[in-house]
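Whiteboard transcription, Tuesday session. T.W. wrote the structure tokens on the left side:
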């Protein structure tokens, strides 16, 4: 996979139609912002403890509560009855979550079943038997209606993996078909969270078949590298880098999206998942701190998430604020990483998510999904509250971008990597004077592939520079990269 984007003829026309639709849109882009809520965050220590009342529903088109489970006889299982239900003086999490619609009536709420910890074997057993599968479908409809959700999110991780079997692939399609039939009788939404990378998705899904029955598909384009590996790697790089080979060339967002589109997922149904957390490592040698540097295992657990090898964005931004960290923005992957001593983390921030929203627009995708809302800087300890969520809204729905905050010094020249030779990066040029006249995006006056995000802070503009992929130009009508011949004045 090259750094530049290549499109099939079909994807070309899909993008054309998407661009025309965007032009016809009167202010409402129709893009989705799907916010997952990890309900266990209510048990975190002060500073990271998250209450349902903190959720800003107007910043999410869809809110998904996680998780409920499944039993081998096709029942839907509540996993934390005290937190989820009102019975026996419970906290009524389901009820309070759905009540958020009173603040934002257009926002839809869904309940998700599954997740990593729930495994795969029970789902495989249930869907392989037509009688048990039908019972499960009936139970799902009753559960969703009883607890007043607008829909159901299927997060089986993963068919034909982790204790599953090959027939799971077609049984999964049959399950979505039967759910669709019953859901249509009640006006309910049916969505799914799916593996992103080809190496996993190719084992689990008949993509063109399942896409017929799902309202949209949340592609989990993260966890592409992590502390289960022996060298440092980024959680969710946008593109590949020179020097990568084999399967590593497919472990980036662009490769994942291309695979799903090529296999028949309609772009408007593909919701690109972005992480509000980073994957973190302990370096074997603190003097080897680039990509591909040797590691000894997960980084130290953060104070809120308390999971080795994973840090919420709220934890990362607080660490950076405390000082002593070196931040590197990788020019090819388009994602930052930071290190201090023997601790190393790769993550997404406002800048990288701004570029990912431009990518979503350029591909004509349905929107963004985030995992998960409770690891954004929801208290605003590093600046404005919910900076990552507001960045998605600014890029996809025309909302106000978050106000810039003071950042530690960054370098765009990545240090020498261990696995591949360092490539020469182009010189970083300053934005032209006077380019910003108001808040928002603006295209470079001389190079259509370059655009800037302008943010007025006390009368002065903070400017962030971005580049469209090779062959594309920034289209001001959709605030995203588009084919040059579709952008007036840029062909």
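and on the right, the sequence the group agreed on:
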């Amino acid at each position: 996979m090259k750094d530049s984007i290549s499109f099939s003829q079909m994807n070309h026309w899909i993008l054309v139609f998407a661009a025309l639709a965007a032009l016809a849109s009167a202010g409402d882009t129709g893009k989705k912002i799907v916010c997952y809520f990890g309900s266990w965050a209510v048990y975190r220590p002060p500073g990271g403890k998250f209450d349902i009342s903190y959720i800003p529903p107007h910043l999410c088109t869809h809110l998904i509560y996680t998780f409920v489970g499944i039993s081998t006889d096709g029942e839907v299982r509540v996993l934390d009855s005290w937190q989820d239900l009102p019975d026996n003086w419970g906290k009524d999490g389901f009820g309070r979550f759905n009540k958020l619609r009173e603040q934002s009536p257009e926002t839809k709420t869904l309940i998700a079943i599954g997740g990593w910890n729930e495994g795969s074997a029970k789902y495989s057993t249930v869907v392989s038997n037509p009688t048990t599968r039908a019972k499960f479908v009936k139970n799902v409809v009753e559960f969703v209606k009883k607890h007043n959700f607008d829909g159901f999110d299927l997060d089986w991780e993963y068919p034909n993996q982790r204790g599953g079997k090959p027939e799971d692939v077609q049984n999964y399609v049959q399950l979505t078909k039967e759910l669709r039939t019953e859901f249509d009788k009640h006006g309910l939404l049916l969505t799914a969270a799916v593996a992103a990378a080809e190496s996993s998705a190719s084992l689990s899904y008949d993509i063109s078949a399942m896409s017929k029955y799902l309202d949209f598909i949340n592609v989990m384009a993260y966890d592409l590298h992590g502390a289960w590996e022996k060298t440092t790697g980024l959680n969710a790089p946008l593109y590949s880098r020179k020097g990568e080979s084999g399967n590593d060339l497919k472990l980036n967002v662009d490769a994942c999206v291309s695979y799903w589109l090529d296999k028949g997922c309609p772009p408007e149904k593909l919701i690109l998942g972005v992480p509000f957390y980073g994957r973190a490592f302990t370096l074997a040698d603190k003097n080897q701190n680039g990509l591909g540097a040797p590691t000894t295992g997960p980084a130290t657990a953060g104070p809120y998430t308390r999971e080795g090898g994973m840090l919420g964005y709220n934890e990362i931004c607080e660490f950076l604020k405390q000082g002593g960290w070196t931040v590197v923005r990788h020019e090819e992957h388009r994602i930052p990483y930071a290190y201090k001593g023997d601790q190393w983390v790769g993550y997404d921030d406002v800048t990288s998510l701004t570029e990912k929203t431009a990518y979503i627009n350029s591909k004509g995708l349905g929107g963004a999904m985030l995992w998960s809302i409770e690891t954004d800087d929801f208290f605003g300890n590093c600046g404005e509250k919910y900076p990552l969520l507001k960045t998605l809204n600014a890029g996809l729905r025309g909302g106000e971008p978050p106000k810039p905050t003071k950042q530690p010094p960054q370098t765009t020249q990545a240090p020498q990597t261990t696995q591949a030779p360092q490539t020469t990066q182009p010189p970083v040029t300053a934005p032209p004077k006077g380019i910003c006249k108001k808040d928002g995006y603006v295209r470079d006056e001389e190079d259509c592939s370059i655009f800037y995000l302008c943010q007025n802070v006390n009368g002065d503009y903070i400017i962030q520079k971005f580049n469209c992929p090779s062959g594309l130009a920034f289209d001001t009508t959709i605030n995203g990269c588009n084919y040059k011949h579709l952008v007036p004045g840029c062909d």
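Someone added at the bottom: The first helix runs from residue 9 to 24.
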